[in-house]
Amino acid sequence: MLECADGTLYTGYTTDVERRLDEHDSGVGAKYTRGRTPVDLIHSESYDTKSAAMAREYEIKQLTRAEKEQLTER
């Protein structure tokens, strides 16, 4: 999960966190993060399969902002 410069949160999945973070910061990441740079990595989780990662991404996207913030406190 990323926190964008405007304070909003972005959730996505990747196989390479550092590469994806660099993409977001350089403006070639998701459309949502363009114009909201720099971004900070505030939470990450690892999964063995793409399907498990995508399922968790969906779960996180359904959470409220307060619930997402609780994830970052763990």
Short description:
The protein has 74 residues and is mostly helical.
Topology overview:
Layout: E1 2-3, E2 9-10, H1 17-25, E3 40-41, H2 50-61, H3 65-72
Antiparallel strand pairs: 1-2, 1-3
Any descriptors?
endonuclease activity; 3 helices; hydrolase; Putative endonuclease containing a URI domain; single chain; endonuclease; mainly alpha; UPF0213_domain; 3 strands; about 70 residues
Tell me what the structure shows.
This is Putative endonuclease containing a URI domain. GO terms for molecular function: endonuclease activity. Pfam families: GIY-YIG. By secondary structure, this protein is mainly α. The chain has one domain. It is built from 3 helices and 3 strands, in the order ββαβαα. It has a 3-stranded antiparallel sheet with strand order 2-1-3, with no helix packed on it. Strand 1 and strand 2 form a beta hairpin. The relative contact order is 0.21. The model has no long low-confidence stretch (mean pLDDT 96).
Give the C-alpha Rg. Answer: 12 Å
How would you describe the shape?
A: globular
Q: Percentage of helical residues? A: 25-40%
Mean pLDDT equals: 96
Helix/strand class: mainly alpha
Total tally of structural domains: 1
